[in-house]
Design brief:
By secondary structure, this protein is mainly alpha-helical. The protein is built from twelve helices and five strands. The radius of gyration is 25 Å and the shape is flat.
Length: about 270
């Protein structure tokens, strides 16, 4: 009799779990992550139960991406000869035996297997809803953080997005529609992030995406500003930089970025003549 009662209790417990709705799983997951973080104790258990009951649920899949991506990351301190790394300031600096300054930066390391699981999960979501910019931008951000200074896959992903935008697709961010202007603003944000990385690879990606966007948005002076900044900072070609800033001011005379950078370029050109 006791065994029968235990078995009945187990069946009832299983039925109780399966009776949970996707919204209840999501609420439970959100409560847990608020307390312990995206990959803390108990989160994976909730995700496994959620996935078993609702394997196609997009909120569950996105939560699994966040779990694996967060769990894949570790911390390290790296040394660099320059005063900036990935647009960040050093946490400290020391002088080596030759008298040269060595700068130390907080860095993020990745477990390749866990990162691969995260990427695989976000790609499943993209395949289910290719026009959802939440998933597309999430992948771009994950690639950029993983690649650091060597921006190759990030560039490829952004190129795909911008090329697709030429066909004027019905972009959306979850249930909210995204118009052409908001798409341009979002891509400009990624351009700014690439610029701040400061590596040769990132500068070239910054230039490539800015050129692609300028073809689609010829009246957006910010992309002309980008190209001016590329020629000024990456190539030290001040004459070419000035031409782009002047073009930007013709389109938008109140463009403060162009106004400020024209003065900077003119000072650099004057200093070069001296």
């Amino acid at each position: 009799m006791k065994r029968i009662l235990i078995a009945a209790a187990a069946v009832f417990a299983a039925l109780s779990v399966s009776a949970q709705t996707a919204e209840e799983f999501k609420a439970k997951y959100e409560r847990q992550t608020r307390n312990v973080g995206l990959s803390g104790v108990g989160v994976e258990t909730i995700l496994d139960s959620w996935a078993e009951t609702f394997p196609e649920d997009r909120d569950m899949l996105y939560a699994r991406f966040l779990f694996f991506f967060d769990k894949s990351k570790g911390n390290a301190v790296v040394s660099r000869p320059s005063t900036k790394y990935l647009g960040r300031e050093p946490v400290m600096n020391l002088t080596d035996s030759t008298g040269k300054k060595v700068y130390y930066f907080q860095d993020v390391t990745f477990d390749d297997a866990l990162y691969g699981e995260a990427l695989k999960t976000i790609e499943i979501l993209i395949s289910k809803d290719i026009l959802n910019l939440k998933y597309r931008f999430t992948k771009v951000a994950a690639l950029k953080e993983f690649e650091k200074e060597d921006i190759v896959l990030t560039l490829s992903e952004l190129q795909g997005l911008v090329a697709q935008n030429a066909g004027k697709p019905a972009w959306h961010y979850d249930s909210d529609p995204v118009d052409s202007e908001l798409f341009a603003e979002s891509i400009q944000t990624y351009c700014a992030e690439l610029y701040s990385v400061g590596s040769e690879s990132a500068y070239e990606a910054f230039k490539t995406i800015s050129e692609m966007m300028l073809k689609q948005y010829p009246k957006e002076s910010c992309f002309l500003d980008n190209l001016g900044s590329y020629w000024m900072m990456s190539k030290k070609n001040y004459k070419k930089a000035l031409s782009y800033y002047n073009k930007a001011l013709k389109i938008n005379p109140s463009d403060q970025v162009a106004k400020t950078n024209v003065k900077i370029v003119q000072k650099k050109m004057a200093a070069a003549k001296k």
